[in-house]
Amino acid sequence: MAIYMLGRNTFGDPADAGKLMTIEEAHQLLEDWVPNERLRLHMKQVAAVMKAWALEREGADATTALKWELAGLLHDADWEKHPDDHCRIIIEELERRHIDPEVIHCIASHGPRYFGVEPENTMDKMIYMFDELSGFIHAAALIRPTRYEGMDVKGIQKKLKTLNFAAQVNRDDITDALSRIDTPLEEIIQFIIDHQKDVV
Ligand SMILES: [Fe+2]
């Protein structure tokens, strides 16, 4: 992945705190911006895992969970059509739509090495944690005849050490993301498997 430094650290307008779009509007944006079905599925999977983590692990209310879900659903929305301006285009779109700055900051911090924005709150740290690993686990599911059924954490951990499997997934990012949170890798992998397996 190339480097697309955003060159700034603040996003959105504090006056827009609490302003969200509906999940239907976010899905429509994906339909309009992302023809690639596999990329759309990736974002839906990250969204499902983010929402579930907010509700089950952070005790979030429905509005907060929607923030986590929207960040997951839109984090790569500009990747297909604007590969050279990835992240900047969706951020500017969400700023134009007056979306809550926390959602925008979360999207901006999903790859600190690439966009130059550090994850600050838990939502930021978890999207960084889930993004690469979610894609990795899905790649592992695709080569199994039974897909997610019977998939186990140990098998995923072993594949992570097999560097020529899903070689585009940067293991250093996973290690770095993990170092910023208190949850063990095993638990994160299991959580992702459980919450993205039925996303279509
Ligand atoms: Fe992603």
| Proportion of residues in helical segments | 55-70%
Proportion of beta-strand residues: under 5%
Summing up helix and strand content along with how strands pair, one would put the structural category as mainly alpha
Examine the secondary-structure arrangement and name the CATH architecture. Answer: Orthogonal Bundle
**What overall geometry do the principal axes of the alpha carbons give?**
globular
Quote the CATH topology. Hypothetical protein af1432
State the CATH class: Mainly Alpha
N- to C-terminal distance:
26 Å
Q: Which whole number gives the mean pLDDT?
A: 96
- What gyration radius follows from the Cα positions, in whole Å? 16 Å
Give the beta-strand count. Answer: 0
What sequence of helices (H) and strands (E) makes up the elements?
HHHHHHHHHH
Low-confidence runs: none
Q: What can be said about the biggest beta sheet?
A: none
Quickly count the domains: 1
Q: Which cofactor or ligand species appear?
A: fe (ii) ion
What is the count of helical runs? Answer: 10
